[in-house]
Each structure stands twice: as C-alpha cells, then as structure tokens.
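User: Here's a protein and a ligand (guanosine-5'-triphosphate). What would the complex look like?
Assistant: Let me lay out the input and then the predicted complex.
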Amino acid sequence: METPKPHRALSVVVPTFREAANIPALAERLNEALGESGIEWELLLVDDDSNDGSEAIVQALAERLPVRMTVRRESRRDLSLSVLEGIRLARFDRLVVMDADLSHPPERIIDLLRALDDGCDLALGSRYAAGGTLDRAWSLWRFLTSRLATVLAQPLTHCSDPMSGFFATDRRRLPDARQLRPIGYKIALELMVRGRLRVQEVPIGFSDRAAGASKMNTRQWINTARHLHRLYRHRFGGWARALWFGAVGASGFLVDVAFYLGLQWAGINHQLARALSFWPAASWNWALHRRITFRERPRRPRTQQWAEFLAASLAGLGVNLGTYFALTGWIEFFDRHRLLALTCGVALGGAVNFLTSALYVYRRSATSN
Ligand SMILES: Nc1nc2c(ncn2[C@@H]2O[C@H](COP(=O)(O)OP(=O)(O)OP(=O)(O)O)[C@@H](O)[C@H]2O)c(=O)[nH]1
Ligand SMILES: [Mg+2]
C-alpha cells in the first residue's frame, strides 16, 4: 500500500447536533471514500452538547477509525461557530467541511480536493452547478426557500450555490477568525465573502438527510436573513440598508397579496380585502425591520413603534399614489407611459418610507420621544 503523504493529509470537520444515528455511517463512508486514496485523514466532529449518546458512539468508532469529537458547551448552539472551532482544532491544514447527515456525498471529496489542488482557495460542492442534483424528496417549500436564499446571496458571490455547506479549503488561505462574524448556518458564504476567496464549484448530488431530524427552524431562517444583511453591509456599506429595506418591502408585498387573496377566498369582498391586507403586510415589514434592518438601533416600546411604522407606511403609500395621479394627470408623457409613472411613485413612496423609518421610527436615540 502507498505510504500516506503528509502534505495530502486531510481533516474532515463536521458540525453535529443530535446526529448519533448518522455518525457511524458517515465514518464508514469516509473510510471507504478516502481509504484507498492514500490520504491520511481524520474526522473531527464538533458537537453542540447533543447529549444523545454521540460521544460514546465516537469513542467506540475511534478504536478502528481516525475519529474524534470535541464538545462545545456554549449557552447558544451555532453551526458556523462550531465549524470555526473545528477549523482551529483540526490536525491538518487541508480541510473538508460537510454535514453529518450524509446529504453531502463523501465520495465527492476527492473531486473537491482536486479542484483545490488546481489552485482555488475554496472548492464548493454545488447542487445548482451544471451536473449537480437535488433530492426529489424536497418539498416545494424547502426548494423555494433555498432558492430565495440563493438569489439573495447572488450580489455577494458569483457562485451558483453560495448556501452550500460542503467545501474543501486550506486553513492557511482563510481570513483570520477575528475578521469573521458568522451567524447561523452559512459558514462557506461568510468565508467566501469576507475572505474574498477564489472559488471553484464542483457539482454534487445532494440527498435528503439519512436519519434524524432537521435542525433548521424559524430561528435559523431569521439568522440566515441577519447574516445576509451583515454581509451586505460589509460589502456595500450604508447602501445595503436601503437595499435591504427594499427587499423587505418586496416580501411585504407578497404577504399583502397572500392576505388579499386569502380574505376573498374566505368570502370577503375585494375592497374590504384590499383595505385589510395592508395591516398584516405592514406589520410584517415592521417586524423584519425591527429584527434585522435596524437591529442595532435602540429598542423602543413595540406598540408605539408599530403604530409609527404604520403611519410612515401610509405616508409612503400616499406619496406613491399621489405621484402616480399627479404625473399621469398633469404630464402627458407619463399618461402615455403609465408604468413609468407607477415606478416613479413606488420609488418616491419607498424613499419616504425609508427615510421616516431610518430617521424617526427606528431612530438612533431612544430618548428623542
Ligand atoms: N455544532 C452544531 N451543529 C449543528 C447545529 N445545527 C445543525 N448542525 C449540524 O449541521 C449540519 C447541517 O444541519 P441540518 O439539520 O442537516 O440542516 P439542513 O441540511 O439545512 O436541514 P436538513 O438536512 O433538512 O436536516 C448537520 O451535521 C447538523 O448536525 C448547531 O447548532 N451546532
Ligand atoms: Mg442536512
């Protein structure tokens, strides 16, 4: 057998939370995938205090395979911070990061390493690159949310699957951990954006988790949104807030339409449905701005701030409609190009809404009431 070449050695870092059912199969498949390559490897599991018997399973496996587990005992679990911990503790500089649930095929690691050897900083396992596939078991909801997150990350990177959690890299090419501020699940995105890494994508077949339950929940989705917002501000500075404000407004429009149609479906006439659907949509926007867009601004009493935001939204709506009526009523050019008038109204109304929000509703000083 070929003797292991130390420079090709590899640490496989895997964040885990309640993955006892998947760990043995993961270690075995890694052993099969890497065993014949001559690559010296270790599997380092970074566990968020799962308390599900994982530690005992790893101890038993460690008698035959190069597997170890480090346990974080932080008050709040966090996938990205677990991965960073693993990167710090790994025995080798060459790293692969992947999930424990066998969604990421260990057999593709060799291809990721080949791409890394070709000279990129990070080789990314991609579901959406040509040749990549998704599990058919994905629900429509999961597919749509995944695609939405991917689209929102597009201005930050040029790859087709920036939300992927399967990648190979070299620790020496990564930015210093002190420059990183990840939150939640998207550690590859954090490394690529803040480290300005050269990325090469490798298509993979992504399967649904082999066993155990998903750890993705509403809090994690909010964390993903907060993370994206942080990266936007890092990349685009102050403009990112206005951009983000617009994106939240667009999502509010969807809520508006959903309520408008839902209420009519429940038997309410269209004018009343139109008048009612404004409130949940504006409340949705208010909540997202409070939790994400203006998160660092001082917290003020909810009801008062909510009422102020609704007033600001109504003012924005007034400017929006007023602009449309004025332009189409008074200027013949706009009467011939009404969509342009509509766009001007939306832009002006949005600007009014943004400015009143930034300067008043979510103001910096909590004492200027
Ligand atoms: N250390 C740590 N690992 C986590 C945490 N949340 C998830 N993980 C692990 O991160 C990987 C990805 O989590 P998943 O639950 O598979 O997330 P997902 O792939 O988006 O969703 P499903 O595949 O549908 O379950 C798995 O190995 C999890 O065990 C966490 O808070 N801390
Ligand atoms: Mg998974």
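Summary: The pocket of magnesium ion (ligand 2) is lined by residues 99, 101, 103, 209 (CB under 6 Å).
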